[in-house]
Amino acid sequence: MGIIFNQQNKTFHLQAGNTSYIFQIYREGYLTHLYWGHKIRSNDLSRLIPYGRKSLAPTPDDSDEGFSPDTILQEYPAFGNGDFRTPAYQIQLENGSTITDLRYKSHKITKGKKALKGLPATYVESDTEAETLEIVLYDEVCGLEAHLTYTAFEKYNAIARSVRLINSGKQQLKVLRALSASVDFFSSDYDFLHLPGSWARERHIERKALAVGTQAIESRRGASSHQQNPFAALLSRGANEKEGEVFAFSLVYSGNFIAQVEVDQFKSARFSMGVNPFDFSWILEPSESFQTPELIMVYSNNGLGEMSKTFHRLYRNNLCRGSYKLRTRPILINNWEATYFDFTAEKLENIAETAAELGIELFVLDDGWFGKRNDDNSSLGDWFVNEEKLPMGLEDLANRINKQGLEFGLWFEPEMISENSDLYRVHPDWCIHVPNRNRTKSRHQLILDLTNEEVRKYIVQTVSKVLRSAPIKYVKWDMNRHMTEAGSAYLPKERQRETAHRYILGLYEIMDQITSAFPEILFESCSGGGGRFDPGILYYMPQTWTSDNTDAIERLFIQYGTSLVYAPITMGAHVSAVPNHQLDRITDLSIRGHAAMSGSFGYELDLTKFTSEEKAAVKRQIEQYKEIREIVQFGELYRLKSPFEGNEAAWMFVSEDKKESVVFYFRILAKPNPPLMSILKLNGLDEDKNYEIVGTDKVYGGDELMYAGINIPDLKGDYVSVCWRLRDRE
Ligand code: DGJ
């Protein structure tokens, strides 16, 4: 394992887990990419460098037409010196030109992995877990340096890449584009897979074959967004859950991003990803630097299943932080869909009382507890208690709820400001806006200008004050609109295009300060549901509200798609009332329970309205989740049937020691004449173990369950599900 530099042919060989990533310093300091895939032993792949292709390609050296920057694979390509494909970066000099030519200057290989200043990133706890290569590229004309960083993890098939641009010259430079990484592939015989969606329909799966031209996914919304997730993968044709090659990319960033693949004239593919250059620029004064976010690149030789396992383990162990990182998550009840804004302290206490009787562990007070917030028209920014609704205050309410045996949690939307708020009346220019232009609202609200340190200070102070005022053990951190008129009264005119990225840096600073000051609080992020479900936020907050859509059937799709990158423990999933508030669909409590138990489990309905039979069923669900939550939250996920491919969905969780497992099967609609025998083939079990099907007298071999399958019982009607628990019968 580790990083090898072959001095003779100037080749870098990064070995991460079971993968190799190889590139070489070529000719006058070009970095040419040679290989990424299953681990190989060779430290010399010079034979793979294309040379002598006649294609009218430009040559830096007129006497040698065999070489062109346009006909080699590159590691961090420029534009304007002969490579016509998508560049990884572009810089404007004081003379207005945008040509730079970065060439190899030096490198160093070190143990471990350094943090990225001001940005979330994967980390290691011991230097033995990874090795890092830092390569310095240099442009002699303007003094620009690019430090390309590659970390190879020992245990994972994963490489983390990022770039720091440093102005070591004497003139002002303007960064027009600074992607985190670019990877060239000789072939374009791949499918492009990504996770598009919308509000209430996040992270569905799209897959299509690459074709000549450029395919891109991006966000221009100021957030990673519901519409696209900062994730994309290239799959060998025919690759599926268990087989085939997958090259996956996940950006540790929560703002505007782009991921694109260009297939060129030779049918080679260039994949690149990073902060979206659209409406972006960044001024670099002499000696200043710009740090790109980190891109995690995962290779799998065993399809999407193994890719997901790598992301899940890496993000659970080496991205998420805090005291809840490896702690089981409490079962919660949230009052949002139970009461919306219309509640009293008494109503909340009643819900909490019933919840406590049924075994729920945490009560979350959602929107509407502060300022004069009786609907979504006002009060964001006024983080003091609404005394009309809670006359005895938050502490009193929290104490009462604690007495019932539940912890207390609270909702905030700290990044926002309502026009109708005390804060706005005092600071009308604290919001993101552009002079003399309309301030476009979304959900009647504006966004606070987090580029301004006064604003950041205000948020940290006011939120911290509330958190200190009562025994608060959980925070739901919401963010309910996207950015328009992206400009800042705080930044000078030449830095206006830095607003969106500086906003995210400001957000990270706030989140870092608050989460570090309150290490015992469990933070769950939210953005109109799953509009900012990304690795950047997970670094600060170890779980995310997956979607505002709580319909069990829609959740099968959303949670399946989300699980491609994000572990079940990171997905907030609640049982809600029927008819469902988003879709009006009626489903049984049992399937709602099974869908929600597949993540970090909770309820979001008025339990006081339940009949005693329904309450008894909820109680059983809670007991069941308590028994399986270690497996769901810390086991391995195996996806068995995709709802995107048919009328069923199924997945299972297997404990690390393979002694226990829980399997969920869902059938969406009843169909006539089903197969003679409905079988579900399991995965991830120990072939040599015998598993008892808990609650029955049946015992089957792990081999039998995986290769012959388990019988799906005869199910009646639409929207039905089954859960099996398996236990090693030693
Ligand atoms: C959007 C969230 O996704 C909901 O769960 C809820 O917290 C509302 N905001 C409250 O305004």
Amount of helix: 10-25%
β-strand amount: 25-35%
CATH topology group of the domain at 2-318: Beta-galactosidase, Chain A, domain 5
The CATH H-level superfamily of the domain at 2-318 is alpha-galactosidase from lactobacil brevis
What does this structure look like?
This protein is an alpha+beta fold and 730 residues long. Among the domains are: 2-318, Beta-galactosidase, Chain A, domain 5, CATH 2.70.98.60; 641-728, Immunoglobulin-like. Helices cover 19% and strands 30% of the residues. The chain is built from 12 helices and 38 strands. Strands 6, 7, 8, 9, 11, 12, 14, 15, 19 and 20 form a 10-stranded antiparallel β-sheet that branches. Strand 28 (543-545), helix 9 and strand 29 form a beta-alpha-beta unit. Helix 10 (589-597) packs parallel to helix 11. The chain is globular, with a radius of gyration of 27 Å. (2R,3S,4R,5S)-2-(hydroxymethyl)piperidine-3,4,5-triol binds at residues 336, 366-367, 411, 478, 480, 526, 528-529, 545, 548.
What is this entry, summarized?
The chain is α+β, with helices and mostly antiparallel strands.
Characteristics:
10-stranded antiparallel sheet; 19% helix; globular; 730 residues; alpha+beta; Immunoglobulin-like; binds (2R,3S,4R,5S)-2-(hydroxymethyl)piperidine-3,4,5-triol; Beta-galactosidase, Chain A, domain 5
